[in-house]
Every structure is written in structure tokens, then in C-alpha cells.
Design a protein that fits this description.
By secondary structure, the chain is of the alpha+beta class. It has helices spanning about 35-55, 65-80; strands at about 5, 15, 20, 25. The strands form two sheets. The protein has a two-stranded antiparallel sheet. Strands 3-4 form a two-stranded antiparallel ribbon. The longest helix has 22 residues, at about 35-55. The protein starts with a strand and ends in a 22-residue tail after the last helix.
Length: about 100
């Protein structure tokens, strides 16, 4: 399929993408869309491997002991319970004093 010449809004000729082979489009840059996508995919895979190389695998990370998990859970529950009775929003408590703090 031949390159189709079109005119842009400023009157300059612009070539539209053409089909160079069966299913790929040639954008005139010397590489087709499929080859550019494959290059992009390979670079992303390479970047992920580099990033994963700096991190420890999940199996090598230190797991919290049952005692540490219980301590963390207790601290969370105590902190959550400390907010009981604290109003959420002024619209639910229009009679609250002006200095009242809300969540």
C-alpha cells in the first residue's frame, strides 16, 4: 500500500501511516509498531528484573512472630478505641461548641 499524502490545517503535506506488511503499520520512522512495542516490552521486563534484584524475595523477609503480631494488633485496637465518642463531622453535631475537634 502506498503512502497517502494529506494536507494539514496549515496547508503543509502530511503523510498518513501506511500498511507496510500484513498486519503492522509503518509510521515512516523506519520501525513498525509491532517492533517498537516489542522493544518497549523488553525494556519493561529488564527494568522489573533490575528492581526485583534490589529487593529481597518474599520468602527471605523476616516474618513477624506471633507475639509481635499480637502486640501490633493490641496497639491498633487501643488506638481505634481511643476515638470512641469523637464526633465525625459538624453536620451530625450542630450543637457542638465551636472549639470541638472532629475526625
Amino acid at each position: 500500500m502506498a503512502s497517502v499524502a494529506c494536507e494539514s490545517t496549515d496547508g503543509m503535506p502530511v503523510s498518513a501511516p501506511t500498511r507496510a506488511s500484513g498486519t503492522s503499520l509503518d509510521f515512516g520512522s523506519g520501525t513498525d509498531l509491532q517492533a517498537r512495542f516489542e522493544q518497549f516490552r523488553r525494556s519493561r521486563i529488564r527494568e522489573r528484573r533490575i528492581q526485583q534484584g534490589t529487593m529481597k524475595p518474599q520468602s527471605q523477609r523476616c516474618a513477624r512472630s506471633t507475639r509481635a503480631k499480637g502486640k501490633l494488633r493490641r496497639a491498633f485496637v487501643e488506638r481505634a478505641l481511643s476515638y470512641l465518642g469523637t464526633p465525625y463531622h459538624r453536620k451530625f453535631f450542630p450543637d457542638a461548641p465551636p472549639h470541638q475537634l472532629f475526625l
